[in-house]
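Exercise 3.2. Students should predict the tertiary structure of the chain below and write it as C-alpha cells, then compare their answer with the key that follows.

Predict this chain's 3D structure.
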Amino acid sequence: MSDKVEAVILILQQRKTNLCCEEVKNLLQSLGFIVRDGKNGGHKIFVHPNVTGFFSGSFNCGHGKNPEIKPSYISGIIKILKQYKGELNHDD
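Answer key:
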C-alpha cells in the first residue's frame, strides 16, 4: 500500500486548493479510514481502526452540495498521512 499512500499524498498536495468533500472522503476511505459526520453541519471526522496512536482527524466541508475544502484542512490531512505512513503501509 506504500504506493497508494504516496499517491494520495501527491493528489492532496497537487490539488490542495481545488478538492471537494466527496473526493477527500473517497481518498481517505481508500486508505482504510472511516469518515463520518461530526456534530456540526459539514464537519467530518476520520478514524483508522488499525493505526496505533491515531485517534482522529477532522475537516470541514462547508456548505452546499459537495463544496471545496479549505487548503488548511488539506494540509492537516497530509501531515497525518505522512506521520502514520509506516502503519498505513502495513494495512491491507
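Discussion points: The chain has a mean pLDDT of 89. Residues 38 and 44 are 5 Å apart (CA to CA).
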